[in-house]
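I would like you to help me understand the sequence and structure tokens below and explain how sequence relates to structure.
___
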Amino acid sequence: MKIRVYILRCLSPLHVGSGDTNYGVIDNLVQREPHTHMPIIHGSSLKGALRENLENRPGKDRLSKDQIWDIFGAPIKRGEKQKETTHPGEVHFDQGMLLSLPVRSDLRPYLCATTPFLLQQMSEHIDLLKAPSAAGLKALFQPFLSYGLDNPLQQSMVVNPMLKDGPILEERDLQASYLEISTSDQMEKVIGKPLVLMPQQAFATVVEELPTVARNQLENGESKNLWYEEIVPREARFFTLISGPDALVDAFDQQVSNQVIQLGANASIGYGRTLFTPLASLVSQPKS
């Protein structure tokens, strides 16, 4: 069995809807984890979007129908009545978990914010599943993994030398200090640039206030249906794991690595363009 880890970079706003009924101001909410309330992309949503993309690829290099069915599943006929049933795919799709989120700043249009909790979550997740990049990622995140429940981060920190003056975040008087680390360039390739590490409570407040977009259905210039949608802003990053038989994972990897895949709703207005980058291409393995 082979495992691949991908960084999902949002090139445009993302709306992967929860489908839940909501009686608040916002009609359509994004998917969130129930216990952390962080935005996520359910594995079923990710799998469905990837299947649609690969099934509709043009050209001779596209996957065959048999490969599509082996990866994602296929209808087969069994039994005396030849009843059509579902044959599950052999490749497993993990959910997309949040890694970083853009926040506004006074020194730059935005900074890519993350927390020790999110870094620890990613490091532990891929380590437990024995993904090839686990050791390299743990070494890369090591300067920040010391912060936890017993040693919480007290102040936001930036690692980019160009931001030594200490940017203010989200108009909340959250001023960041500068932390000099030797791996700042490589960290920003994974998490986003410029990178800022935020205390969990401050980051949770930002996550609770995701952008909301008003949508309207017009007929002859008259409003027939006004609704509000929550979105994950562009330049947010998620990570996900794909695992399965070696040949199928390799075939899948050739199709999606460094490719832009449309996820979620509203493709006709440019939402959901997401770049899939293999983590292995961003992280160096530690020397043994």
About this structure: The helical segments are 43-55, 65-72, 116-128, 134-145, 184-191, 200-208, 246-256. The chain is about 25% helix and 30% strand. The chain has one domain: 2-72+86-281. Residues 2-72+86-281 form one domain.
